[in-house]
Every structure is written in C-alpha cells, then in structure tokens.
Amino acid sequence: MLERRVVVVVYAGAMALDITGPIEVFDTANRLLGAAGTPYRTEFVSADAPLVRTSSGVVVEASPLEAGLGPIDTLLVPGGWSLHSALRDHALVSWIGGAAARSRRVASVCGGSFLLAEAGLLDGRRATTHWAYSEAMACRYPDVTVDGEPIFVWDGPFVTSAGVSTGIDMALALVEDDHGSALALETARFLVLFLKRHGGQSQYSAVLDAQLADHPPIRAAQEWILQNLGSPLPVAEIARQANMSQRNFARVFRREVGTTPGQYVERTRIARARELLETTGLTISQIAGRCGFATTETFFRSFGRTLGLTPREYRLRFQVISPSGLIDRRHERQGSPA
Q1: Residue 215: how many CA atoms within 13 Å on its side-chain side?
Q2: Distance CA 278, CA 316 (A)
Q3: Using an 8 Å Cβ cutoff, are 201 and 209 in contact?
C-alpha cells in the first residue's frame, strides 16, 4: 500500500470541525511520519460540489460523488445542523452505503452516525452519537445499539464518535491503529492536545451530569443529592427532600430527568469521582468515601461498568491539574516515551 485513501463525504450545512478536526490529525501524522510509513491522502466528495458551505460558513472545495469510486481505506462522514436534509437525500444515503462496501473502515463524527444508520450499516452493531441525540437515534434505529456515553465506539470496521472535538480523538485512535501509539501520541502532542483520550471516557462532563431539572421539587432533590454525595442516599430519603411519596417521586423523577433516582445518584457519584481523580491527589479509597461508595470494591465495579476503565487507569490517562499546577503524566503510561 503506497497511501491510505481517506474520502470525506461533505454536504451543505455539515459542521466544519467535524471535517477539519480529523483531517488535521491525518495531515499532522503525515508530516511526522515522513517517508518511512504509509501516508494518508484525503479527498472531499459531495453531491453539492464543487464549493460546499458548512454550517459556520467555511467553504470546502469538493469533487462530485463519482470521484469517490474505487477502493477506500477510510470513509469519513461528518454531522451537521442540516442533518435532517441530508437524511432525506436518498441518493446521498445510497452512495454512502455503496462506498462503505468499498472501504476498509467507516468512521463518523457526531450526527454522521445517523447517515450510517440510515444506510443500514449499523444494524446489529453498537454505535454512539452526540449525547443530545442518542435517544432520538435509538428510537429511529431500533436495530442499532446506541450507547450515548463513550466519546467513540469501535465495532468491527465502523467507528462512530460523539461529535465535534471527539472526532479528533477518534482520528488519533485510527492513527494509532495504523501506525502505533508512538506516532499517535506525538501527533496529539504536536497538536497541543493535553491528552489522547481513551474511547471509553464518558462524553458527559461533570457539569453535564449535574444539569438540574426544571420541576422545582425534583430540582431541589438533585441539589440535595449533590450536597450529600458522601451519604448513603436511599430513594426514600431523597423523596422526603422533595416532599413527595417515594412511588410518585420515582415516577416524576424518571419523567423529568430521563433516568431512575438510583441511576442518577450513581452517575453523579461517578462524575464527582472523575473530577477528584483529575484534579486532586486523593487516594482511590478516599475518593470512594467522599463520593458515597460503601466500599472501594463497589467503587471499582461501578466505575468500570460506566467508563470501561479502573479509577487508576482513568487517573493516569486524564489527570491534568492538581493544587500545585499542571501535571504531565506521560512518563507514567505504559509504552509512552518519557
């Protein structure tokens, strides 16, 4: 193989960063790779060729879809605010399905996973999309197992990412798969990215996890949960804080928040634990206690089930600051250069 052909499907109203983020990763990897490896060659194709305006006004010069014939190494499909129009473009969806059959792997950013699913490519597979649209995707495509938590999901030849900046994380993972971790880490470093994030990292930040409901009693209960994470927090006690019966509280909470009180408590505990792992030097057992886990073992099971990493692995990958300032932990990561 003399080069790796990357074909990016562009359409009017696509999000510019969904396109430019991954291709900057591939271009940077090329420059760092030199003449020793197999470089990426990026092509843009579109039904709206030759000049395609993205949602932010950035114009991409593209070739007609017919130029994308032949074998493809990586097919990349972005998302965008005009996704509804793109989904109604049957010719575009059909072309994506045909191009996928000629591709070694297929990647999507944000709502691009909807286009893959519309083409029937994700049936029976696990995929992700932007957290705000994961429920809509699951309803529209019941044959797809939609996981709204990870920043990207790799299932067979299909890689779907959560959106916007996570397309960069996904592209770094593709570079690592092609050329090894050393080049992927060097690419991340050259792009001034603090971290090369693991796909299992949740796309929900602690702030997103802490979003409060509009319904006053439920909002009051959520605020009380946040203030008392170190306590056991049985549902009956939370319901008392909302001045509601336990049964009615559970029903209204699920309607307003989209999850059960118990699931919300666990997610909030994990969000707080992530924050402490990233920003403090507390021990794992201290963090477990502060976040209300009865035992360290319970903390490990819950954390692993949610993020696919142990607390220690998460800290090694994602800790960036401490009270004393910035931390560079690359030398602690197995297989990474000091």
Answers
A1: 16
A2: 9
A3: no
Residue 116: CB atoms within 10 A of its CB come to: 26
Give the CA count within 13 Å in the CB-facing half-sphere of 92: 26
Q: 0.70 exceeded by the pTM?
A: no
- Residues 268 and 212 sit within 8 Å (Cβ to Cβ): no
233 Cβ contact list (under 8 Å, min separation 6): 225, 265, 292
Q: How confident is the model at residue 327 (pLDDT cuts 50, 70, 90)?
A: very low
119 forms beta bridges with none
Q: What is the pLDDT of residues 168-213, one digit of tens each?
A: 999 999 999 999 888 888 898 888 775 555 555 555 544 344 456 7
Query: What is the H or E stretch that residue 75 is in?
Result: strand 72-77
Burial of 160 (0-12, 13-18, 19+ CB in 10 A): buried
Alpha helix stretches (DSSP H) within 34-165? 83-88, 90-101, 112-118, 134-140
> How many CB atoms lie under 10 A from the CB of residue 64?
12
Cβ atoms 213, 249 nearer than 8 A: no
Query: At a CB cut-off of 8 Å and minimum separation 6, what does 153 contact?
Result: 126, 127, 128, 147, 159, 160, 161, 199
Tokens in use for 193? Answer: 């990215």
